[in-house]
């Protein structure tokens, strides 16, 4: 549901805009860390390493997990029956 909601109300253009803003913020942090004079060298290196390890997760995933590809929902079954079937996958 989250993917479909996100694609409808937070489209690819909005997602790209947010990603661009976040990348600019990260670049600013990196520049400031590289030029600061109050951190020790080892602390500065660790902070840069941590900054580089950030994984962006914005809005919704680009595709559904392979797990969801295996789940089959039947309109002939109740919600409860579909949930039980999904949990057995």
From TrEMBL:
One annotated Gene Ontology cellular component of this protein: plasma membrane
Entry's Gene Ontology BP terms: protein processing
Xref: InterPro entries: MetalloPept_cat_dom_sf (IPR024079), Peptidase_M13 (IPR000718), Peptidase_M13_N (IPR008753)
Domain Peptidase M13 N-terminal residue range list: 2-61
TM spans (from-to): none
Gene Ontology MF annotations: metalloendopeptidase activity
Protein name, per record: Peptidase M13 N-terminal domain-containing protein
Organism from which the protein derives: Gardnerella vaginalis
């Amino acid at each position: 549901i989250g993917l479909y909601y996100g694609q409808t109300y937070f489209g690819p253009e909005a997602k790209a805009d947010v990603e661009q803003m976040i990348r600019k913020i990260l670049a600013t942090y990196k520049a400031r860390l590289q030029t600061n004079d109050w951190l020790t060298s080892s602390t500065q290196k660790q902070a840069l390493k941590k900054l580089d390890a950030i994984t962006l997760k914005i809005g919704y995933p680009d595709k559904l997990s392979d797990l969801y590809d295996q789940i089959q929902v039947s309109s002939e079954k109740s919600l409860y029956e579909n949930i039980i079937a999904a949990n057995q996958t």
